[in-house]
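Illustration: ABC transporter permease.
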Amino acid sequence: MLSARLRPASYTTVSLWFLAVALAALLPADLHVTSLSPWADLRRLLDGLVRPEFVAVEAWSVVYTVAFAVIGVTLGAGAGFLLAIPFARFRSVRLVCACLRAVHELFWALLLMQVFGLSAATGILAIALPYAGICAKVYSEIIEEADLSALRVVPYGTGAVSAFVYARLPDVAASLRHYTLYRLECAMRSTLVLGFIGLPTMGFYLESAFRQGRYGEAGALLFVFYLLIGSRRLWVRARTVPVLIVASLLLLPKTVGSTEVWPSLVRFVTQQIVPSPLRQGALLDPATWSRLWAWTQPIVTQQILPGAAQTLVLAQIALVATAIGALVLFPLTSRRFAGRLGQPAGRVLLVVVRSTPEYMLAYVLLQNLGPSMLPAILALSIHNAGIVGYLMGRHADGLPYRPDAPTGLNLYAYETVPRLYGQFLAYLLYRWELILRESAIFGILGVATLGFYVDAAISELRIDVAVVLIAATVVLTLCVDALSRALRKALRIDTLPMRLSQPMVKGAGG
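Result:
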């Protein structure tokens, strides 16, 4: 009966197709629990969270986490703003930005380490490069959606730059600021994850604590991280931003590894990322291209195709699990369902869930459940269900209900969900690309997605193979993004808020 209330019939069709594909994906998915005592490990972890050892927290790791995030977002947002101006007019700019944001921060870091080593530059650029592409797209949308009435009264002959600065920028400044602050929260999550590959952020100490069973220290680090995220609005303000940027620059860690950046960059560009057959023969020699084909074929058949299939399987199951989780969780954050006392607790719970990076959550679950696809699915589903559920709860609070509206389950099933279902699908389809992007990097933890083969290639110093595999993840991500946009357009939900920060920008919550 619920589906009958969903106005466009295609909502039901799309939902059933996604559910059917996810059920089919369960067949090849590896969902085994291989740990001998998962519940005992989980109890030790919970005991560490209940008894955190704050004295064990390395203070400099907190400083570096904030510093990497602040400088990375400053560079990424600045470049994104410059790219946003020509974004709508030039397809080449849109393509460059799409490729930048399709590569996960961990993949960027693994490549940048070949040039900069374990240095501040690696951590900062690993955040700045994808964030430049993300910010360019979002800033462009914000600028395009802005009120144009101010442009109609500018004097004739006013230059394009002056017209933008004085007529359009004041209109969109608040939205740009809000979104940039949200990206800082995302950057802190990304910086935390970069610690898992050796950069000296909180993630480095978290990984060490979890691996060695020091759960009290791990719990303290998590609490400090959640405090950073939760208090962001207090210490990131217009007047504190310049101070944060200067302080971050002064407190960045020293370079570890090679300091000869220019020779490393030349070697990286001219040798390491060039396919090995092209380094060993003349480009005009047919034998060179024959060797290139022989080199490429096993990469495609033995790594790209199986890795892409596993990435899609993981992403599809996680997407549907996210949908189910969000539908279950969103009443916790709605006053209509949770009440005045339950709503704040529900929101705090979902803020904590959404602030926990998927990669870190998957790592923790991997220690408790053993190596399989199950920890990655749970991590993706929990994190994204927290995001979508939080937003849906805010939208539910904004719905006008009639005086004789039902209560309880009837209110949920016959009044609230049918009216929010279009918005619900908009969020899910927008998260689809992001879930796929995260699914690829879980290969670094041992899941046989594309990231598994990327990590193996980099470990063996076959950087040319790693670049081809990362390019495959870009293509796969762009295809899913294109399909997502097509579905949103077909369902006529492409104009609804989709980004986590968008309701906040537009005053609708979230």
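Reading the tokens back as a structure: The two ends are 29 Å apart (CA to CA).
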